[in-house]
Design brief:
The complex is a heterotrimer of chains A (308), B (162) and C (420). In chain B, 70% of the residues lie in helices and 0% in strands. Chain B contains 5 helices and no strands. Classes of the chains: A alpha/beta (308), B mainly alpha (162), C mainly alpha (420). At the B-C interface, helix 1, helix 2 and helix 3 of B face helix 1, helix 2, helix 3, helix 4 and helix 12 of C. The structure holds sodium ion (2 copies).
Chain lengths: 308, 162, 420
């Protein structure tokens, strides 16, 4: 049997290495009976398209971001509520110890076998000028990611959030259509946004997770043995998390060496951002469909249980 | 029957033109709101895109009604000229059947999107609302070809020379 | 093998039964999906929708309508009048004016088809009237019409930028010099090929009044490109701005366009869109089958393992792209080939923007090569000449474009000079 594995991450990144490792373990576990064909860099479509293809069984295993999954499991968007999380340790604990059983059935209902969490890391803020207080972005045109929580964040900050596809963001920065935006540090550096908007503020205002899933259609066609050789092949996600996070750190160091500016927010400054954005939280949560109303308290509980 | 197809054409042409106007207004509203009123309209680009798809899909039938489709003609001289009318009618039946099949298949897609509950990113509208234009357009187009097969006088002159 | 034979037979039957291109592609796509790929027809519908549901595609209908309005109204005509007045004293003046009009018009339209239609509808009758040969007139308009994809703004460049995550603004800048080179080369050929046709002489006051009358047309590229480069609107949105500007100028300044004509333009454009959009979408479903079966990456792998020198790779790349251009429509070809070729080209140290420009010019030539040559089809449709007459007429122009392609390939600075 040949499984199609897809991700939007390009070759050579931790995400592709991670699924490659899983793929070779699957093949070893099944004595070569199951092999894998890897499609990287979004060859099979944009993330939301790949999500649809995976449900319909054209992609067997998919690693994607929470933004993409929220087009079918809307409750995933709750994980991206701004200023929800305080630290990576807290997030890891909440996801691994408390939230997997909450989301597993939601994924299953939509035709996915939830395999494990995915990790993209903190989302930070960047601009042509330093963004240190909500006043710095008041009325400023900034790029918002095509997701509710991104729009909600900029709304709270009082900025003019323009929803732009990632690929259009560099040219929009270049021409001055937008003055800044939000991205994971790695994407910010890798796409060279720092050349046009050299001030990165480590706002960590939201966390972008994701999931590695299998199409239920494929899953149900496998024998018990074959299913086991897949579940036993899941390389622990903590390794991926560590790699993504340390790579982000290294890239930021390189960025600073080349003259980029990295700003840290003091506790008071971060509190100021939070105060600006929090009043809009309820509106965001209630705009999220599905069983968001039942899931949201469980996320808050998980967070509470993981105060470290 | 002629009257029916005329009405269908008028109906779809008006809708398509309306969709076109919506495309342009939505795109302009986006730019104006952003540049002059510091506002970002989350829905406008999606409205524009779906309106453009509607215009294009409705245009499929309009192009059929007016003979605007590209048709390779390299084999037109292959068989005797007296056969052409028969071939044409057979061809129209085939086209009609294939578009009907396309309508059926895309209806399956819409149904599946409805059942799974896919949402349009950011705005959270159900995707199947917009995908429904596919089965509609393919079926309305199939209807036209069946019409041509029954009454060849309905068939328009071909506009191209390809 | 049996399948391939059956498919060929099916296509032949469909041709004899006078099926249109959409139906033929639909059947091919469905058959390939069932026989060689994922195996469900619904997947084709899924790909069809995914191909339509792309924001970059949004600029296509709007640019089409814009072109249709400009060619019905006075913008295109007055642009042509200015260039006619300026080139009348040259050898082959109207021929040169044709090339320059296309180039100028290309700077306000995102697609080659629009350029061809808008300028062609005004100039084709004029060329024939002044004694230019059918073959030259057809060839010049069809070929110079393709300048629309190299001279910014350009829909194919937007698509390349999107799929390779290359800056669209950089792509636009990189297209300027190669676009001018192509224009100059075609203009020189036009002057030479039509040297026997009598000149009309240069009339200063006529030229002056043509410019005064045409100023709103002449300003259009300035507003469009200026707006993009100063961040007022995105490259995609520039289509809507172009349309709004064209409408205001036609309805309130030139006042030659009636509301009835405007309605006509809208309906006509929807018909054109209805012929085009489904073809684009079905082509995309065929491409998705190729990707799923990893055909392009196998080709690219073969290429990189058999070719060592950069110059050999560049030649091979151009030959591959020209061959792709024979069979594929430009947008689908970019969507499928760009993400595959980019990593290979990076191995040879080729700048992504340079690669983009090379791809665009190759595929631009593909617009003029049978069997799938959109500009040939559009020209034969618009000027009521047979497909083969048009195909023969573009041969000298294609040869010139190949020469410019060689220059652009081996002198990367031609593309990269303006890019920061
Ligand atoms: Na252009
Ligand atoms: Na071609």
């Amino acid at each position: 049997k040949e499984l199609k594995i897809a991700t939007s991450a390009p070759l050579g990144t931790p995400w592709v290495n991670h699924v490659e490792a899983i793929a070779s373990k699957i093949s070893a576990n099944s004595d070569g009976a199951i092999s894998a064909k890897l499609f990287h860099a979004g060859q099979l479509g944009t993330e939301p398209v790949m999500v649809q293809k995976a449900i319909r069984g054209r992609i067997d295993i998919l690693g994607s971001s929470m933004t993409a999954f929220s087009t079918v499991v809307p409750e995933m968007a709750l994980m991206g509520v701004p200023f929800l999380w305080d630290s990576y340790a807290q997030i890891d604990c909440a996801m691994d110890k408390h939230l997997t059983p909450v989301f597993e059935p939601l994924f299953e209902k939509k035709g996915f076998k939830f395999l494990q969490w995915n990790e993209l890391g903190w989302i930070h803020t960047f601009g042509k000028k330093p963004f240190l207080a909500p006043g710095d972005v008041k009325g400023v045109k900034v790029r918002a990611a095509p997701a509710k929580y991104s729009v909600n964040f900029w709304q709270g900050m009082g900025a003019n959030g323009v929803v732009l596809p990632l690929a259009e963001t560099p040219s929009a920065l270049q021409t001055g259509m937008v003055e800044g935006g939000t991205l994971p540090a790695m994407t910010y550096v890798a796409m060279g946004m720092g050349k046009m908007a050299p001030h990165l503020t480590l706002s960590a205002h939201l966390h972008q997770s994701g999931a590695l899933v299998m199409s239920m259609r494929t899953w149900k066609k496998l024998s018990k043995n074959e299913q086991d050789s897949i579940t036993n092949a899941l390389v622990p996600v903590q390794g991926l998390r560590d790699e993504v996070r340390s790579m982000a750190k290294d890239m930021l160091a390189g960025f600073q060496e080349k003259g980029g500016h990295v700003h840290k927010l003091s506790a008071e400054q971060r509190e100021e951002w939070k105060t600006a954005v929090l009043p809009l939280r309820e509106e965001l949560v209630s705009s999220i469909g599905g069983q968001a109303q039942e899931v949201w308290p469980k996320i808050l509980e998980a967070k509470k249980a993981c105060v470290l | 029957m002629k009257r029916f197809f005329q009405l269908l054409y008028r109906f779809e042409a008006t809708l398509a033109a309306l969709a076109y106007i919506i495309v342009v207004l939505a795109m302009l509203a986006d730019v104006v709101a952003r540049e002059f009123f510091d506002l970002s309209l989350m829905h406008s680009s999606k409205i524009a895109l779906f309106a453009a798809i509607f215009a294009g899909m409705l245009g499929l039938g309009l192009a059929t009604s007016t003979g605007n489709h590209i048709r390779p003609k390299i084999t037109d001289q292959l068989l005797p000229a007296t056969w052409q009318n028969l071939l044409q009618r057979l061809g129209d039946v085939l086209s009609g059947a294939l578009f009907l099949l396309a309508g059926y298949v895309s209806f399956g897609l819409v149904q599946s999107s409805y059942e799974i509950g896919f949402l349009v990113p950011v705005v959270d509208w159900p995707l199947w609302w917009f995908q429904s234009i596919m089965p509609y357009a393919f079926c309305s187009n199939a209807l036209r070809y069946f019409g041509f097969a029954l009454l060849p006088s309905l068939k328009p002159e071909e506009a191209d020379a390809a | 093998m049996t399948y391939a034979l059956l498919l060929t037979l099916a296509v032949l039957v469909m041709l004899i039964l006078r099926q249109n291109l959409i139906v033929i592609l639909m059947v091919l796509g469905g058959a390939v999906q069932l026989l060689y790929s994922d195996g469900e027809l619904m997947f084709m519908a899924e790909d069809f929708w995914a191909a339509l549901d792309r924001e970059a595609l949004l600029s296509i209908p709007v640019f089409l309508l814009c072109g249709s309005i400009m060619s019905r109204g006075a913008i295109a005509e007055r642009l042509v009048t200015v260039l006619k007045a300026l080139t009348g004293s040259l050898s082959g003046g109207l021929g040169v004016a044709t090339i320059l009009s296309c180039a100028f018009f290309a700077a306000i339209s995102g697609s080659s088809m629009v350029t061809l239609l808008a300028v062609g509808s005004v100039l084709y009758p004029a060329l024939r009237e002044q004694g230019y040969s059918t073959s030259y007139s057809l060839g010049a308009l069809s070929s110079a019409g393709t300048l629309g994809v190299v001279i910014p703004p350009s829909i194919p460049m937007i698509i390349y930028g999107l799929v390779t995550e290359t800056s669209i603004t950089d792509m636009f800048l990189a297209g300027v010099i190669p676009g001018l080179l192509l224009t100059i080369a075609l203009a020189i050929y036009s002057a030479w090929a039509n040297r026997t046709i009598p000149r009309t002489g240069f009339d200063v006051s006529a030229a002056g009044s043509a410019i005064t009358n045409g100023i709103w047309s002449l300003l259009m590229p300035v507003i469009l490109l200026g707006g993009i480069y100063s961040g007022y609107f995105t490259a995609t949105e520039s289509a809507a701005i172009a349309l709004a500007y064209a409408l205001v100028v036609e309805l309130f300044i030139y006042k030659e366009l009636t509301l009835a004509q405007l309605w006509d333009a809208v309906i006509h454009t929807t018909q054109m869109l209805g012929g085009l959009l489904p073809i684009l979408a079905i082509a995309a479903t065929l491409n998705m089958v190729l990707t799923t079966e990893q055909v392009p990456s196998l080709v690219a792998q073969w290429l990189s393992s058999h070719v060592e020198e950069k110059w050999m790779f560049l030649i091979g790349l151009n030959i591959l792209l020209l061959m792709v251009g024979f069979f594929m429509e430009i947008i689908s070809a970019l969507l499928i080939m760009a993400p595959i070729l980019l990593p290979v080209a990076t191995i040879y140290g080729i700048n992504p923007v340079h690669l983009g420009v090379m791809m665009i010019i190759n595929l631009e030539i593909g617009l003029l090569t049978p069997p799938v040559g959109i500009n040939l089809v559009v020209a034969s449709q618009a000027f009521r000449e047979s497909f083969w007459t048009v195909t023969r007429s573009v041969i000298p122009f294609v040869l010139i474009m190949l020469c410019v392609l060689l220059l652009v390939t081996f002198l990367p600075d031609l593309s990269l000079f303006l890019v920061s």
